[in-house]
Amino acid sequence: MFKSKISLPLIIFFFLLLIISIIKNQTRSFEKKIYQLNKKISLKEKDLNESQFDFFYLSSPVIIEKKINNLGKNNYSPIRHSKIFLNFSSFTNIQNKITILKRDNEKKIKTN
Amino acid sequence: MKKKSKQIKNVNQSSFYFEDYLETNKKNRISKKSNIFQDRIYLLFFLFFSLIFIFSISIINISINTTEIFNQVNGSSKFTLQRRDIVDRNGILISRNVKSYDVAIKPSLIKDKKNFLIKIRLNFPNLLFDNIEKKLNRDKYFYLKRRINQIEKEKLWALGEKGIIFEPIQKRMYTHGNLFSHIIGQVDYDNYGIAGIEKYFDRDLKNKKLLKKPLKLTLDSNIQHIVNKELNESLKIFNATGGAALLTNVDNGDILSLVSLPNFDINKRASIKDKKFINKITKGVYELGSIFKTFTIALALENKLVSPNTIINNIPRKLKCSIHEISDIKEFPKSLSVEDILIRSSNIGTLLIARKIGEVKYKKFIEDTGLLKSPDLTLEEVGNPINFEWNKCKLETVSFGHGITTTPLQATFTYAALVNGGKLIKPNLIQKNNTVNYKKIISAETSQSVSSILRKVVTEKDGTASLANIDGYNVGGKTGTSQNYKNKNENLNTFISVFPTEKPKYALLVMLENPQVARNLTYNYRGMKIKGTRNESGWNSVYVAGKIIKKIGPILAIKNEEFTNQYVAEKFN
């Protein structure tokens, strides 16, 4: 009589308590993760803020004008567009073509 | 108790048969014992439940407040802005809060004070050591340096002293240094605005709901830089003590550029008390001279007293009015048309027209334009024009801009109204999407006539502003050469231009304080190369305005038809 009356609620109670503690632990770990992420976000935001600030400072008309003046003092020599290779393979291709042409030319000269 | 007695009764009457005394007592004892045991269990259960309940509540409470607790513990690592950004019309950053440190000293944690002082002296020779020594000996917490930079922080960190405390703070920084110093203003150490826009919009800039939305100004950084640069150069060329420029959109009142020189770097905090650093455009109050002649002519045209071609005959060379003797700078023909009076800037011609208008109408015009009131602007630094009484000869002197003071801002906005169809618009520094409210002061017809006369001031042979005739921009304007009302030895040369005059969109004011003759400067005057010999507004302020318009014109994207037809080649492929 007594056992059935007391034990059932006690079992339910302990069961719920266990579930609550599990949920609590889970939420706690989630909160920690969220906190860590928030911290990271806030640091990134701070970095972004400062980088943006640096960008706007460095691209302000006064600084750009200074840079232009500094660059203007340097001597630049013009270079032909055909001598600029955008990657290594284009360079080797052209070099191959040149050597083939040279070889053909040499052959022609020899035969003549 | 009732329940108990009932149970006992039931036990006793459980059988018809005789039960001996002992048996009955035994049963009674067992039932009593079980009752006591049950009560205890209930009590224990109640206590246990209460404990669990309290425990659960505390868990819920902790879980709700966890984030706050975290923030309190590690508050320094979280960066939340205390103040909104300020950006220009193109979204270019002007001011922002960044993380910085104040360095404080806790003397009780410093073991070897002498050694500490030597280290500080070596690393920071500019600090006042007597003060630091005194504070150190007083054993009280004090600030060594505020708003330190990264290098200074590293230096202090390297000292390895426990007593050096780095207090994290938010520092307001300005990307353009001194470019917007008179407009943006400053904040104090606690991030409260103390001048300029920072002060006027202090509450708005601290509004937590709007923290991620920057405050957008009507100013343009690139134009501001060009105007500032040209004006700075002109101060050197003309050896002027100060200068100011204002560029505004005449249709909506947006201020695109406002420069007042000398200026100061707002990143370096310093108390500036010298009056030469005031905002000359909004706070400075000046007698602007011949600038006012345009108002007189516009008023006469509006009242249909004259037309631009009406000839004013018998203009005397000199005229005595009360105690004043009024004359023109140079000799003009005795008969001049109304537009010629403005083109040549004749004092006496304007005076005669003002007499036709009369004091009542002129007074009303001055009141309508608000030239004698403080400018209505979203800045703390606004000037109060000097009030005067309309006594004898006041109308005559006011007609050509003498004996009346106003701020350059108000004069420019009155010009804007004279050329935009007669709409007097409020100056605006903050970008809004609201419709523009205005007060009509003259008709569109009069406005058109004024624009065309102003254009002639620049294009006509006798005009006073030929140096502002920049190809393609159809510049019009009026010069003003006056004396500083506080110091009669100082000149104040002003030029207010409007462009393009066929449909004016912008008004530009250039003002130079006490400019000198630029003898080394070679002007390109109507196709001739001439050296500087004169010192009127037409030879300095106009020259500067021309240079500015030439540079800002392409940025303002004014359709420059002449230029397009002459220089732009068509792309064929």
Describe the protein.
- The complex is a heterodimer of chains A (112) and B (573).
- Chain A is mainly α.
- Chain A has two domains: 1-76; 78-112.
- Helices cover 84% and strands 0% of the residues of chain A.
- Chain A has three helices and no strands.
- With 573 residues, chain B is of the alpha+beta class.
- Chain B has two domains: 86-216, Penicillin-binding protein 2a (Domain 2), CATH 3.90.1310.10; 225-565, DD-peptidase/beta-lactamase superfamily (Beta-lactamase), CATH 3.40.710.
- Classes of the chains: A mainly alpha (112), B alpha+beta (573).
- Chain A binds chain B through residues 2, 6, 10, 13, 17, 20, 24, 27-28, 31, 35, 38-39, 42-43, 45-46, 49-50, 52-53, 56-57, 60-62, 65, and chain B through 34, 38, 41, 45, 49, 52, 56, 59, 63, 66-67, 70, 74, 77-81, 92-93, 96, 98-99, 173, 175-177, 179, 221-222, 225-226, 229.
Features:
heterodimer; A: 112 residues; mainly alpha; elongated; B: 573 residues; alpha+beta; Penicillin-binding protein 2a (Domain 2); Beta-lactamase; 2 domains; 18 helices
Indicate the multimeric state. heterodimer
Work out the largest interface and the residue count of each chain.
A-B, 27 and 33 residues
Query: Strand fraction band of chain B?
Result: 15-25%
Uncertain segments of chain A are: none
Mean pLDDT of chain A: 84
User: What general outline of chain B do the C-alpha atoms trace?
Assistant: elongated
**Assigned CATH architecture of the largest domain in chain B:** 3-Layer(aba) Sandwich
